[in-house]
Amino acid sequence: KLTSPALQPVITPELVQGRVHLRCSYSPPSPDPPVQYRVLWSRLSSPGKREQIHQETTPQPFSHMEMDGAKLRLGDTVFCTVTAFRRGAPEQQSLPEDSKGFYAGIKFFPESLEIAEDGKEHLLTVLSTVPISCPGQDDSCKITLQLSIEDLGKSSQAPGPPDIVLSACQVDLLPGPCSGDSCAAATVTVTAVTDFAQDGNSLSRVSARPAAPRDLLWGAHTPSDVKVTVRDLPTGNCYSFTDPHIITFDGWRYDSSKMGTFLLCRSDARPFEVHVRQWDCGGHRSATACNCGVAAR
Q1: Distance of alpha carbon 209 from its chain centroid, rounded?
Q2: What is the 3-state secondary structure (H, E, C) of 139-198?
Q3: Model pLDDT for residues 43-94, shown as the tens digit of each residue
Q4: What GO annotations for molecular function exist for this entry (predicted)?
Q5: Nearest to residue 143, comparing CAs of 170, 118, 104?
Q6: Per residue, what are the HEC states of 76-137?
């Protein structure tokens, strides 16, 4: 075996003449004697299984593969495996070294969310791990993603309207330099719908789909979804019933026998209030008022 320092192959994305490429870089051993590299590109075809897509022998400490939409597609998790050997003596070779798997495409961060019916906003980032490219339209280059929500059902009932809302229905990914595992990113906020019902936890799915891309590479891409679990929270209730008995949010009990229109409830935090109208329902025998109308905004 050819003993050498670790090659440590790493895959990074880059643009080459406006086209998206992946670059496998590795640390060359000492330059003397001259060494060549066998680079094997593969992608994850199913969990735990890889499919070989390209192999080459090169004296360079790097290898390129274009994301052409055929051999290498967006959505692939890609690996490069590098073996070093002496020129003219291929039997003297190092042990093959694998890179980490590189996911090439659009993904959500975090990959799943658990939120509660408490009105709080939660950040959801949509990012591309490869550069945004639009050959022939550099002046207005962007990838527009259409966002959608699907209800996967509550723990107590069948699917219905989604239990979450997004701050935007679409986001734009714009060209820019890559940093870390992100070459372009946009954020939206996710909020749980407060439905005032004890109806169990619910599960929703947020999807992103490229909207009318001109480049086939992006048009054929279906990014992974993100699952959002909404935790049901008990809701405060207040009551006014019959000849009105009133129970407030904090459990106090009152009786009201006055006639007229009254403010029953008002929120300090948002434009929400409830008015109630009480009319005489006791006749000549007793002065009793009953609920007869309600208005809410």
Answers
A1: 12
A2: HHCCEEEEEEEEEEEECCCCCCCCCEEECCCEEEECCCCCECCECEEEEEEEEECCCCCC
A3: 998 888 999 999 999 999 999 999 988 889 999 999 999 998 887 776 788 8
A4: signaling receptor binding
A5: 170
A6: CEEEEEEEEEECCEEEEECCCEECCCEECCEEEECCEEEEECCCCEEEEEEEECCCCCCCCC
